[in-house]
Design goal:
CATH topology of the largest domain: Aspartate Aminotransferase, domain 2
Shape: globular
Order of helices and strands: EHHEHEHEHEEEHEEEHHHHHEHEEH
Bound molecules: pyridoxal-5'-phosphate
Number of strands: 13
CATH superfamily of the largest domain: Type I PLP-dependent aspartate aminotransferase-like (Major domain)
Largest sheet: 7 strands, mixed
Mean pLDDT: 97
Radius of gyration: 20 Å
CATH class of the largest domain: Alpha Beta
Structural class: alpha/beta
Length: 364
């Protein structure tokens, strides 16, 4: 059976992205055209994130970017504010601890966004906080935190922000400079709809200064962003062999996203609204507070009495639709429909929902 993917990443690839990936390669270390290509790709990321900051693409999926930002900024004793109202938000606490940081955690129900006021209070109570970790779209719960409001509060207090925008970029707008964000992290396989395997990021001048002012420089090479400052940003050389064909795919995906302009965000907004209305009309309960629902993914509660894993298995094998369950405390309780990038189409959501309802009837 032809399988249709509707999980919130990795998402289906467009023909253009697949063809771009199949091109013959340049030698990334020997061919000067590759330097021009890589620079152009980073400029497209600057446009997408609305930033003048340096942008990089690293070889490894989204988690590599999250860990590299923490490894580069946090040293023993660094006090870090962690906004933990979701699986990824809470997950940052482990990275902070792994690098010796001292987390100050704002915990909140995974259905609720963290507000700028709550961040302001935490920073007043802990004036020695230097870094903050936060998530824009916390994918496992489909929740979108109000970055536009939180970012400026962090900036006013001189706190360096590490923002996981992996699941929002190219679906919900990210204005890195206007919102005062220092490190904004993305992944290739979410709304941009390129294959998994790359993480990209913007790094502000303040973030570079903070890394360089550490008591001890970051250890290691792969997770140390200063490695890139001392190679690529200094003289256009790469610290290791680049995954050229993955880059071709990401570059084509960036072209597609930028060509759509503001329509990209309007499409995601409309399809997300359509999905929320349709699932509720079908009797499902939305998981997050609808006021803070992401435009890239809709999370709904698993109906009482329906076995999560068995249901999704049957939906895939008998009906050909793949949706996602969830993680951590939400495992078994939440289903997720990923209407991001190539999968952000009303008809597709509609067809998926019809399959879900038909499959549900088999369990009743
Ligand atoms: C997908 C995702 C990541 C990266 O995780 P992967 O292992 O690449 O799937 C990080 N943060 C968020 C919020 C994500 O949705």
């Amino acid at each position: 059976m032809n399988k249709q993917q509707m999980a919130p990443g990795p998402v289906e690839l467009s023909d253009a992205v697949r063809q771009a990936m199949a091109q013959q390669l340049y030698n990334p270390d020997l061919d000067p055209d590759y330097v021009v290509f890589y620079r152009g790709m980073c400029e497209k990321i600057q446009q997408l994130l609305h930033t003048q900051s340096d942008c990089l693409v690293l070889s490894g999926e989204g988690i590599l970017g999250l860990e590299a930002a923490c490894a580069s900024l946090i040293e023993p004793g660094t006090k870090v504010l962690c906004l933990a109202n979701g699986v990824f938000g809470a997950g940052f606490v482990d990275f902070v601890k792994a690098y010796g940081g001292e987390p100050v955690i704002i915990e909140k129900d995974y259905r609720q966004a963290i507000t700028a006021d709550e961040v302001e209070v935490a920073l007043r109570q802990n004036p020695d906080i230097k870094v903050a970790t936060l998530v824009h779209c916390d994918t496992p719960s489909g929740l979108l935190n109000p970055l536009a409001e939180i970012g400026p509060v962090l900036k006013q207090h001189g706190v360096i922000s590490i923002v996981d925008a992996v699941a929002s970029i190219a679906g919900d707008r990210v204005l890195a400079d206007e919102w005062g964000l220092d490190i904004v992290l993305g992944g290739s396989q979410k709304a941009l709809s390129a294959p998994p395997g790359l993480t990209f990021m913007s790094i502000s001048a303040a973030a570079w200064e903070f890394m360089e002012a550490r008591r001890e420089p970051p250890k290691g090479l792969y997770l140390n962003l200063l490695t890139w400052k001392d190679s690529w940003l200094k003289d256009g050389s790469f610290p290791y062999t680049q995954p050229v064909n993955d880059h071709y795919a990401l570059d084509a995906a960036l072209d597609a996203a930028l060509a759509e302009g503001g329509g990209l965000y309007e499409r995601h907004r409309q399809v997300a609204e359509f999905t929320r209305d349709a699932v509720q009309a079908a009797g499902f309960k939305l998981y997050p507070d609808a006021n803070y629902a992401a435009s890239t993914v809709t999370a709904i509660e698993v109906p009482a009495g329906v076995p999560d894993a068995e249901f999704r298995q049957r939906l895939l094998t008998q009906y050909g639709w793949q949706i996602a369950g969830s993680y951590g405390p939400l495992a078994g309780k939440v289903w997720r429909i990923g209407h991001m990038g190539t999968q952000c189409q009303k008809e597709r959501v509609q067809a998926c929902l019809e399959a879900i309802q038909a499959c549900l009837a088999d369990f009743r």
